[in-house]
Amino acid sequence: MKKAKARSDRIDWLHALPMLLVHLSLPLAFWTGAGWNEAIVCVALYVVRMFFLTAGYHRYFAHRAYKLGRPMQFLMAVGGTTAAQKGVLWWAAHHRDHHLYSDTERDIHSPTKGFWWSHMVWFLCGKHKETKFDRIRDFAVYPELRWLNRWWIVPPALLGVVCWLFGGWSMLLVGFLLSTVLLWHGTFTINSLSHVWGSRRFDTQTDDSRNNPVLALITLGEGWHNNHHHVQTSARQGFYWWEIDVSYYAIKVLSWLRLAKDVMTPTAKQLARHRLKKGTHDFGKEAARRLRNARKAAGRYYDEKKQDLVQAVDSARRAAEEMVQPAAERSGSDAS
Q: Residue 4: its pLDDT value, please?
């Protein structure tokens, strides 16, 4: 059983081969060359697809932070799928599990299992390949989403073909593949870094989520991760005006255009609840766990040394008694 579990935690190299080949293909851009057109397309595809991932896959499908009509819902799913991060139902279902078991043994990509595991190994191992339909029943009822979830490779493949047709190999390599790799690692940093690097405004109790403005910039607002874990159903993750949240701004525009509705934001009561006191430095759940373990280890060490000392004293007492007893017996014999 343990061996089977260990195998399921390893990288499935056949499953990981496409991602590996995409990474290895990027240096070919030095031979094909690339200009401003390729660079502009690369940036544009990164930003647009990051929006579909963060506003669509994450805030809409995983957390239902706002409502969309069925055509717009499908468009959001297709846009997120072009980022080549598997199917929309697969992604949202696993993300719901992350929040359910955040930073515990059952968390699918907790950084407590190591940086590389949380960054990408969990994504490539055999353990998490299947879609957990029981976690995403609300959206699994739509046949078009089930089809898209099964054939998720079609949208990114078509986008790659379009880039190649309009700009040749350089556009495919830089405009499409490079932006895809940047998307992968940009979104993966939320799993690997946003639970270890940053500050905490709220005591989320069951996890070590953190706010990080750098991660927020590269993910259009996902870096306000402690905010998000505090109010998971909020479409707005940058709770204050100085916390830049581009995805929320775009969702707000969709609501003005009547394409999105019931956009949820944190209430005053939610903003006040479980707030860390000013001046308090919260080390987070993982640091607190390590501190507790260190205290337990120190206690065990103290108990062991105390026991060793007691045994040494007892041994010394017995040795002294053994030395004194023959002398006493000789003194008694001399007296008689």
A: 46
Cα 186 from Cα 46, distance rounded (Å): 10
pTM: 0.80
Among residues 221, 240, 272, the one where a domain terminates is: 272
* Cα 302 off chain centre by: 38
Angle between helix 143-150 and helix 70-81 axes, rounded to 10 deg: 10
| Rounded Cα gap, residues 69 and 113, in angstroms | 39
Tell me the per-residue pLDDT of 110-130, one tens digit each, with 9 for 90 and over: 887 888 888 888 778 877 788
Query: Is the domain of 223 the same as that of 159?
Result: yes
Q: How many CB atoms lie within 10 A of CB 21?
A: 10
277 located within any domain: no
Distances (CA, A) of 129 to 60, 123, 153, 189, 328: 22, 8, 14, 20, 81
And the tokens for 326? 């023959």
Is residue 307 located within the same domain as residue 202? no
* Structural domains of the chain, count: 2
Q: Report which of residues 324 and 21 the model is more confident about.
A: 21
Please tell me the number of Cα atoms within 13 Å of 177 on its side-chain side.
Answer: 23
Over residues 264-275, mean pLDDT: 93
